[in-house]
Structures are given as structure tokens and as C-alpha cells.
Design a protein that fits this description.
With 357 residues, this protein is of the alpha/beta class. The chain has helices at residues 62-73, 85-93, 108-114, 138-145, 181-199, 219-225, 231-236, 247-259, 277-291, 301-306, 323-329, 338-347; strands at 19-20, 29-30, 35-37, 42-44, 54-58, 77-82, 97-100, 119-122, 152-158, 169-170, 203-209, 211-213, 244-246, 266-269, 319-320. Keywords: Isomerase, NAD.
């Protein structure tokens, strides 16, 4: 099989008034068809100087906000959804117009607004006993988006869909065998979004992400804030291998997917170093000690956060390969290991300690 590689630059310059096409595989861009005004969310006169690259993010959580900021800096029009008025206010203060969304009962006005966008990113996770809340309305979504402007769709999934692999290296062709309910629902959601997007003729991808970390959400932040480990973190304590990825590299992969034609549907988005959580926390604590000597006594929770507990094999050890991402999307990782990722995070931090040594 012939393999091609496309080199993606560190930044992805936009061509004003252009966006990727869903129908012409030999040409990545089509001329502008209409302008868009963020305040009214309606198509306007063609003389409007608005960007024709328009991203709608279903779920403006930790990563959704990071990606939105990245796109906004590059000239994109970006909007999305959240689930509370408090979150909506916070996002509006950052300059985003967002919609309140109850995924179980989405308002038709929100679905209609999606039609005005060229790109759709889905970050909403499945719900136990329900599945993907938006795909409950798959037929409504299909009929609403049928005559819209969407060209590209990506669903953010998880490497948990591979299940227990006994420490083996797994790629996108490795059989999926999830054991936990939410992982099974992730797999169902992957199929649902692929069927929806491909059925409508969009360029459609599923990104299976490792554990997401970045500024404000990392081992360094957990130690400094003395945060108790989450349920997911507790389950990862005993693993020999844990897949993870920095938010900046997820952004890179998404932009590469937008600008690089690909017939593939699924990509693993992980770094090169599936290290155990204990090792990551030990390194994070060393960074803190070097930058703020004597301050780590303020972080007594870090040892318990990193120490292993009773082994939990329900999600299973695995080493996840990112070779398809590199080979076909041309992505060069900014943070191939947790070491460079955590170092970049702590280098940007001001002294967070308020107690004396």
C-alpha cells in the first residue's frame, strides 16, 4: 500500500474566505459562498469581511475552550455550547458567543445555528444508561444539517475503547474490546457520528485521545492545588502504561485533519511515551522542587496521589501507537513526552504558593 506524508507547519495560516470542501478530494478549498455574522448567527451580504472558517464546538469544556482560543487567534469564527448559565457567562467574558444546551432536549434553534458553520467538533462524552446524548436525536440532526454548510466533523473519543490489551501495542486496526460501560458507549458513539457525518458527505473523523493534560490540568497543577485524585486517576494509579496527550498536540492533529485530505475515519491521538502515572507525578514534583525550593511541603497530597493502589484491570494496560497520525496527518508532536509537556506548563506558571517555606 502506498503511503503519503504531508508536512504540516507549526501554525496553519488561513486563507481568508476559503474553507475545505467535502466533495472535491483533489482540491482542499472552495471559494467563499456567504459571509457570517457572529452576533446575529445568520448569513449576511457577501461584502461582510467575516472569516469563512467557522467552527461549532459541541461541549466547550477544558479542551473545547483551549481549541476555541487557538482558532480564534487564527481568524476563525468560533461558537459552541455549555450546560450552565454560569459557564455561559464565563465564556462570554472570554469573547465567545455560546448556546446553553441540554443534550437530552436540544432546542431546534441551536441545531439550526450549526448549519451556518463549516466545521463541527463534538466533545460531549456519553452518559451511563443513555449513551451519546446528542445521538438520541440522530434523525433530527441529519435532517437539520442536510442542507447546511458543514464540511467537516470530528468526534473526540478515548483510547479506553480498546479495553484490556495486556500491555500490547495497539493501533487503529487493533480489535476494540471495551469492558467498562462508558467505554462501550464511546464505541457506539464513534459508529454513530461516523455514520452521520459520512452519510451526509462530510469529511468525518474519530479521534481516540489519551488522557488530556495542559495548563491548568496536569500533574503539576494537581500537586500544587493539593487536589484529591479523580475516580479516573485512581483507576490509572496501578497501570504500567497510560496514554496521554497535551492539548496543544490535539489542536495540531485537529487542524491537520481539517487541512489534509484523508479517507481514514479513526486516529489515535497520543504522545510517544505511555508512562505510568506514578512516574509522571514523581517528575512533576521534582520540577516543583527545583523551581520553588522548600515549597513542596505545601503539597502533602502529592505522594498519595502518585502511590499505587490495588490493581484494577477493568480498563487494562496498553501502549497506544500514534504512527497513523504522524504518517497520514503529518503531525510532529510539540510534546512527545510528558516531560516536555510538564516542563512547558511549569515554565509558564507564576509562583502559586502563599505559605512560607
Amino acid at each position: 500500500m502506498e503511503i503519503y506524508q504531508v508536512k504540516i507547519p507549526a501554525r496553519f495560516p488561513l486563507r481568508a474566505g476559503y474553507f475545505p470542501t467535502k466533495s472535491n478530494k483533489t482540491s482542499t478549498f472552495l471559494p467563499r459562498v456567504a459571509a457570517f455574522t457572529t452576533s446575529s448567527h445568520s448569513l449576511t451580504d457577501k461584502s461582510e469581511p467575516e472569516s469563512q472558517n467557522r467552527m461549532f464546538i459541541l461541549g466547550m469544556g477544558f479542551f473545547g475552550q483551549f481549541f476555541a482560543q487557538s482558532l480564534k487567534k487564527e481568524g476563525w469564527v468560533v461558537t459552541g455550547t455549555c450546560t450552565s448559565k454560569t459557564k455561559k457567562k464565563q465564556l462570554e467574558e472570554k469573547g465567545f458567543h455560546v448556546y446553553l444546551l441540554d443534550a437530552n432536549q436540544p432546542e431546534l434553534s441551536t441545531l439550526n445555528a450549526m448549519k451556518c458553520y463549516t466545521h463541527l467538533l463534538v466533545t460531549i462524552p456519553p452518559v451511563g444508561g443513555v449513551g451519546d446524548p446528542m445521538l438520541q436525536h440522530a434523525e433530527l440532526l441529519r435532517s437539520t444539517l442536510l442542507d447546511g454548510n458543514l464540511q467537516w466533523l470530528c468526534y473526540l473519543s478515548s483510547t479506553s475503547v480498546y479495553g484490556h490489551c495486556g500491555g500490547a501495542w495497539v493501533d487503529e486496526d487493533y480489535p476494540t474490546s471495551p469492558t467498562r460501560e462508558l467505554a462501550k458507549l464511546r464505541l457506539d458513539a464513534e459508529e454513530g457520528w461516523l455514520n452521520l457525518g459520512q452519510g451526509l458527505g462530510f469529511s468525518t473523523q474519530v479521534f481516540r485521545l489519551g488522557g488530556i493534560y495542559g495548563p491548568g490540568r496536569s500533574a503539576v497543577d494537581t500537586i500544587i492545588k493539593q487536589e484529591p485524585p479523580s475516580e479516573g486517576q485512581k483507576m490509572r494509579k496501578s497501570r504500567q502504561y497510560t496514554a496521554r496527550v497535551h492539548v496543544e498536540d490535539i489542536c495540531q492533529a485537529l487542524k491537520a485533519s481539517i487541512y489534509t485530505p484523508s479517507s481514514r475515519g479513526i486516529y489515535n491521538i497520543v504522545d510517544d511515551d505511555p508512562a505510568p502515572r506514578e512516574e509522571v507525578f514523581t517528575y512533576a514534583e521534582d520540577l516543583i522542587k527545583k523551581k520553588w525550593p522548600g515549597r513542596t511541603k505545601c503539597s502533602s497530597n502529592s505522594a498519595s496521589a502518585a502511590s499505587p493502589t490495588k490493581k484494577d484491570d477493568s480498563r487494562g494496560d496498553k501502549r497506544v501507537s500514534n504512527m497513523r497520525m504522524k504518517r497520514e496527518l503529518g503531525v510532529r508532536l510539540l510534546h512527545p513526552s510528558y516531560r516536555s509537556g510538564l516542563l512547558s506548563i511549569i515554565d509558564q506558571m507564576e509562583n502559586p504558593f502563599h505559605c512560607s517555606p
